[in-house]
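Regression report. Comparing outputs from two consecutive submissions.

Submission 1:
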Amino acid sequence: MTRSVPATPTVPTRVRTEPASFRDPANRVFHVGDEVLRGLDTGAAEHWRALTASTFFPALVAAGKVCATEEAPSALVPAGLPWAAVLRHERIPFVSHPYEWSFTMLRDAALLHTEILAAALADGFTTKDGSAYNLQWHGVQPVFIDVGSFEPVRDGEPWAGYRQFCQTVLYPLLLTAHLGVDFQPWLRAQVDGIEAEQLRPLFGGTRRLRPGVLTHLHLHGAMQQRNAAASTTDVRAQLRAAGFSRELLLSTVRGIEKLLRRLERRPTGSHWADYQRTCGYTAQDRLAKEQFVTAALTAGTRPRLVLDLGANDGRYSRLAAAYADHVVAVEQDPAVVDDLYRALRAEGQQRVLPLVLDLADPSPGGGWRGVERAGFAQRADADAVLALAVVHHLAIGRNVPLPEVVDWLAGLTARGGAVVVEFVHPDDPMAQRLLANKPEGLFPDYRRDAFEALLAARGRITERLELPSGTRTLYRAVMGG
């Protein structure tokens, strides 16, 4: 899918540097208003000009596999910036992190990365980074965003991004494919990914023989230890002397791609996978709920971004996608998100991005000074939030006080944004099931009138509907209104 950079608007001149863009001094991402810009030093500017004259790069941009990029119009760039050239990128609808992706999402992003690297190598370029963070999403289509990573390849040198690729992409995939362990908590714990020495003890004995483990974990880790005292220049000289060539590097990349295609997520049972069938809704409830959500989303200006919290199989995310530019479907079970991603991919749905996220423990800020990777709350500036069958799970299931739940929902929207929320009454069968596992009298304030008062204190309730079953009420509230 071909994408272009939007037309240049009039923007303020205040420059905001991107906290995640500081590790490469040759280029730096910053923001001016809503524009995403990248400053290049003299060497990086030369690489950019060579890149635009190549065959592979324009083709990848035209296919939507690399983010649309152009040299920024001079009127857009504030005076006095210390860059030889400034680029302008298309804006990603919602920035996510690899530990919020499902297994197949990470694998598809990895396959795009190897496809781009192979195309670059064949045309005399390489990428100096291999991080999973260099990819983002348009719906379920991955897109490579680190244009500053491309540089001319030098014969006899290995791929500089290989270690990053292993730590943020390949090792997480091996962990889930071979051991059935969800990689998300491991990847979230360290911004640089999983170290080889952390994973090697889990792959001893016959596990060493599983696809990719011996070559990319044990041998790679041993090579790192052996060359720990050697300089990068020494290592490159050794490789050149041993006959390492661009053709051998391209063969290695194709071998990684072949390995990635062999890796599959182990099927696992999940309580949430069958939730829509077992949650107790009648056909009348479902119809009334869908009609209410449709009316709520079409009551005002078309939403730019909708968050669907507790999306499960994506029923309401798909509905929202018909009335919004972009939808982020949040669900805590990695297996459920993986199934949803595969289904959306098969449907060709380009407006919905599914993410793995525990609503009671959402992604925090991470990396350098805790801001290199922004937390979910800092990224979630939505025009509308769907919180359907979520409040009781947080308030009863996770012991989050009801006022905290309402404050949190209000904080996920821009001022004037809408929250569409479902309150499950204490006598509802699902609420009763949760309460049965809690000490009696623990939630005296979990009542419909208390919830409604809290919601009205944070916004203006514009619509309400009690579902036909009589134990659930839907609200639409405009926050700050």
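Submission 2:
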Amino acid sequence: MTSEDPTKDSVTAPVPSPTRRRWMRLIIGLVAVNVVVFGGILYYLVGAREAIEAIPTTSIPSLARDPAPVTPVVPSTTIPAGFTVPTDPGAAAAEEVPAEPLPPVTFLVIGGDTREGLPDELEINDRLDGNRADVIMLATLDGDRARILSLPRDLQVDLGEYGTSKLNAALALGGADLMVSTVEEVTGVQIDHYVQMDFYGFASIVDALGGVEITFAYPARDLKSGLDVDAGAQLLDGKEALAYARSRGYQERRGNAWVSIDANDLGRIRRQQSLLFAMLESAKRWSIVFDIGAVLRAAGEHLVIDAGLDTRRLLELGWAARGLNRADIDVYSLPVWESTEDGVYYLHPRQAEAAVVLAAFSGAAAPAAEPDPVQELRLKVLNGNGGNEQASMWAAWFEGHEGVSESVGVGDAASFDFDNTVVRVRPYDHDIGRQVVEMLGFGLVEAGSVDDSLDAVVILGADALAAGTVLGA
């Protein structure tokens, strides 16, 4: 028989209400989020600082300019009410002045093609001597926006004591200093900082990012750079991304044939720009804050920056650019025309168009340019499908269209087994090729050799036979 102590009260633990439980979970969640966010920021700062301090720097006299005068700021302590308490106790409190955004900063970004020290795993077999600029870009960070201007490496420039040469040779002949001064002279854009990376550093950063995703409309390859991918969205590793960025012999499999598409420097610039945006997307994943040190260390000795880009400056710029999206970046390419002088291939700026592009890149008002005179396209049509009198019929069809010369040449192609009609144009004249393809309603654009008396050569394929009803339209 048991007896209970009548003096002992039966106490039951209170059960939290559902509302209280929800508030507790919310508070715990907020605390956890703050720990992760601030812990991530701290990890970012520590990891990035250690990695940045290991990056080699170089002195570039061309970047040595008198700094803008700085107005001294009296230190103050911020209080929650939105006012500042000056260190001088006799002074009155004043409203806090918001921090001003960073002024525009322009980088010259160079991808060097040195083969020194490259591992065999990258499979770059064209072991050239020296270090020329394979990628040349100007990048400006301006508040919450950015601008990128790509410069072709074959641009003809005056390198002073070294004479006339291509822009990419400035790096090999005079190093970073000559590269900076030459780009400034060509573009009129003042450069603030310099960043140079070689092939291995680029591939290492892509791998550290976990790869980059590029979507291909068709299977693509480049027998020289080693690119070989299927159609659709592909996650490229560092080696594959490098092959894509270096591709100058780019081909797509259209049907049963491999067709050269943008297989030139202009096409390569477009591919490099698309790769840049893919890297930006990879870098925006939330976990990158914990990997930033690894990404920077991946560049290692393969990255060189100017001495003015100290740790504090890089962290400041990196933090300012953290929120950039694709829509926040304006991309430009320098309009050019081509020539061959003493057997050397050169590109030259189209002065009127280039002035507009450079003004837009600089953030200035574009100069009033005189409209270019409308020129009729000079075409020649070649029979590449074996059809009887095909070239003559299509030439007459072209002559009846506005914007085409009244005299269209005709002839036979080297073979009659073209499945697709090909519109051959000079490198950097792809807009002309696309204009002709749109006029036809079928066909592919191909960069190649075109006689100086012509703007494009149309090689008729089997698709022209199937579209024969167009001739009577």
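Expected: both submissions complete independently.
Actual: both completed, but the second showed a warning that disappeared on reload.
Relevant detail on submission 2: Residues 18-52 form the longest helix (35 residues).
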